[in-house]
Predict the 3D structure of the following.
Amino acid sequence: MCPLDPSLGSAAPVRRAVTVEQPAPTLRALRIRNGARPDSTVAWCPYCEDVHHHGTGGGRRAAHCVREESPCRVTGYSLDVQGEAEAPHDVVPAALLAGRHRLSDALDGVSAEIRAAILRGVLGKRRAGPAFELRVDRARVSVIGESWWIDLDAFPARPELRSAPVPPSRTLSGRGLINLLAVLYGIPRGDVVMRLLHAVAPGAFDASGWLEISAAAEASIERRDAGEGGAR
């Protein structure tokens, strides 16, 4: 029996109604004296993994973030000026790779491989390139890049129905790994996010953390659905 029932009226599991507060992050900042020119303020941004330059003083600022996923692009941030420095690089954290390489760039480079590895584990079969296909009873699941679709009647039980057109209601489609896993396994997308996190960091979250992050992820995906037409 196919695990998906389009008669339920939705390809996605029941969502939780959650409201998530998004206060502006506070960034550690230092004052730079520029001689005859006005002083400036530099801050280390953990979302861009880079130094942002601003005018004199602390407080709420519009973000200089360039990475699309940085929450500060929406909320801005507050600069907490904690002293003075001779050079902007002095605000970089004392970590081996900070200011030299970005974790975000390293993960960007392997993100396609990570998604492919997850899809291989979930779907089991791979064609040439980033394409996957799986048969589950009468249904066929196909994934190409970020797009996926599920043909619920790809393999009719009666041979004479094999050439019959498939009703639109029997075909599900979407984009993104999180949405696909939520549809296939019938669990909320926030819990899909947590299971992915648990896969790479087992035991990192207690029960309260799991529930809080799952709810926040679900609410975030719903906002993205409403504002941009699709969550990944």
Summary: The chain has a mean pLDDT of 81.
